[in-house]
Amino acid sequence: MSDFWTPRVRCLDPYVPGEQPQDQQYIKLNTNENPYPPSPAVAKALKACDSARLRLYPDPESTALRAELARRFRLDPAQVFVGNGSDEVLAQAFQAFFQRPEPLFFPAISYSFYPVYCRLYGIEARPLPLRGDFEIDTDDYRGECGGVILPNPNAPTGRLLPLDAIERLCRQQPQRVVIVDEAYIDFGGDSAAALLPRHPNLLVIQTFSKSRSLAGLRLGYALGSTELIEGLNRVKNSFNSYPVDSLAQIAAVASLQDEAWFDDCRQRIIATRERCAEALGRLGFRVLPSAANFLFARPPGGNAGELYRTLKARGILLRHFATPELDAWLRITIGTDDDMERLLDSLAELLD
Amino acid sequence: MSDFWTPRVRCLDPYVPGEQPQDQQYIKLNTNENPYPPSPAVAKALKACDSARLRLYPDPESTALRAELARRFRLDPAQVFVGNGSDEVLAQAFQAFFQRPEPLFFPAISYSFYPVYCRLYGIEARPLPLRGDFEIDTDDYRGECGGVILPNPNAPTGRLLPLDAIERLCRQQPQRVVIVDEAYIDFGGDSAAALLPRHPNLLVIQTFSKSRSLAGLRLGYALGSTELIEGLNRVKNSFNSYPVDSLAQIAAVASLQDEAWFDDCRQRIIATRERCAEALGRLGFRVLPSAANFLFARPPGGNAGELYRTLKARGILLRHFATPELDAWLRITIGTDDDMERLLDSLAELLD
């Protein structure tokens, strides 16, 4: 603690991302990265860049990228906001819409960055318990609040809410913004973007980090009514006029233009996930149904923490959350078929 | 105005960056970009990147880049913070150190983003008038405050404070953080980084956008005591764990390793600036002494706004601030010798 820090900064409890060890090569199944490279069109577009152009600021409006996203989602470009990764987009949305006297509703088990943003912006957090089998009940999200946020599919459980449940949330809170954080939607869900024409209070946030294999370039975006996007732009332009660099803008456009690659990668990941879920079941794991690029699974015996450590020592990284509700579970990112086979072999051996 | 926006967002008055017109080719002397490309080592490092690696998150700590900066400034890596452009670093520093009940001191004429950050974070702004010839008098920065920030050299004036004046500011406010925003320091000033061993309340912020020709990649950094850097890390890790993308980290390291290129570019810009200042003087301009990559100059007759518009129509972009104090002045970025010759020719013709 330092006297130079403001009172709020002293109270922060910063987010701890999954390990990114630089010491050795792991089979990295801990941060939900995509096992496949981005589209070859990305490599080609980046190689074609003239680095002399980097002397100039990027387009502060990311015009070409927003136009491409608008086309993909059949929206107006004024309904699209882009930022330096979806974490930044989320942070700015918290500031634009949730910094209010009333508490923010979100599932008690969800993305652990949400309570961190609440502390950063002085927002009262109201985490709402899940029901049996980690299910979200939309009835719990009635009543006075400053807004609603939830991941769909949820993290780290992978469970998906159908669109009618999302629509119910929007209808229950017409005066407040409802954010659906769709980082994993491309692995098996329907995007709430389809609901945007009917719900001006709905904001959908997606990322290039997972289904588009561009975690290294930091690209996220929000889709919503023009008034919500204008609110985000007011915050962005009071923080950093140029959040998305020139190379990231170019790579993102190239990625969006190769739908075949995108579809192929996500179909492969979905197929691997389903095979892996069955195999884990045969090993005695309890596996939640997942619509994401990860599985949330409870090993037989329940000693997930020890299993995590043993696997790490063998060069396989999973994610383990050492909290009372999640301590018995492991979150397993879906890698290549080879990655998963090596994991399953190790598990079979360790559980024998 | 939308009811979905929080009260604070409704009160924002976002920053307006210099124009980045995409419609035609301009001689762009309006946003203080470097006229020379980044080091060829940057191009080489980027070409060598395997874009398949972009599927992985970047190093969240920017370890290699911070080590390289630490070496350059003879600091410990724990004294270095990096962010997505120096605007982001500034924003996070405002939040980490200035969000207090007392007002923030800064020069009334300086970087126009400072009052914008104040609104974003609910900080009372106390802009302090400059003295004759746009000079900063450190005596004005005594008294109770939440912190002090100033650009050195100042923008848009280009005027430089010597290090003993910076040291006086640090001594006058030992309980508060003093930020020196050195975006332009490489064009003729001494960095306050030399004062860091004696002043734990001093934070020095620099950028790769100007002297290193990497505005397109968004890279800024702060240098300070470990307790100040830890405060910044608490904010960063409550906002976005991975602010600097993989390609930007690689390019920045390559840039730092080519000191010869860096020195050559800035010496050329300084030489062009001095020649241009003399030529403007001959045309009847009043030109302030500048230690930056721009000149602040008052055209004869004082109709700077009209001159700005006429030059824009001719394909030459300067920056004009339409405020009562600055309305008679133009800020002219130093381009190549060719750029400046074309500007001077146009001016000679227009003023004839």
In short:
Chain A has 352 residues and is α/β, with parallel strands linked by helices. Chain A is 36% helix and 13% strand.
Q: How does this structure look, described?
A:
Two copies of one chain form a homodimer. Chain A is built from eleven helices and twelve strands. Chain A is globular, with a radius of gyration of 20 Å. The mean pLDDT of chain A is 96. Chain A folds into two domains: 123 residues, Aspartate Aminotransferase, domain 1 (Alpha-Beta Complex); 219 residues, Aspartate Aminotransferase, domain 2 (3-Layer(aba) Sandwich), CATH 3.40.640.10. The termini of chain A are far apart. With 352 residues, the first copy, chain A, is an alpha/beta fold. In chain A, helix 3 runs parallel beside helix 8 and helix 4 packs across helix 7. The interface between A and B is large, with 88 and 88 residues.
